[in-house]
What we know:
The protein has 140 residues and is mostly helical. It is built from six helices and no strands.
Amino acid sequence: MSDDIVQETFVRFLSIGAPGGVGNRMAWMKQVALNLIRDHFRRVARQPTEMLGDEIADPDCPPDEAAIRQERVAMFAQALDRLPPLRRTIFIRRKLHGESSRAVAESLCLTESAVDQHVARAMLTLQSEIMKKTSRGKRA
Length: 140
């Protein structure tokens, strides 16, 4: 993705014709790149997320335990859907797809530290959301 952003930024810069109308070329190019990144994540946010399926069920698992597992998977999926789009994307790529921090950071034009922070915050949010739901269920 980062290569595409850089390329599109240069294409737009070259398409404006004589660059005399742009006061600070570097600032203009940074703003264009930032806008392209924002557009990308807006598109990603509008794409439907894939729900976790029931194919992870263990055939030897007792029905009551299978129902509990299904409920936990559903709670996790709902909590995951409520994460901000960038954080959700990073979490899925790092923890569910097993990509490295470096690979995710490079493709999203972020630092490895920022990727790790998103993952940590996502985990805290997911844990908190699931804890809230399970504590509500115990009170009912």
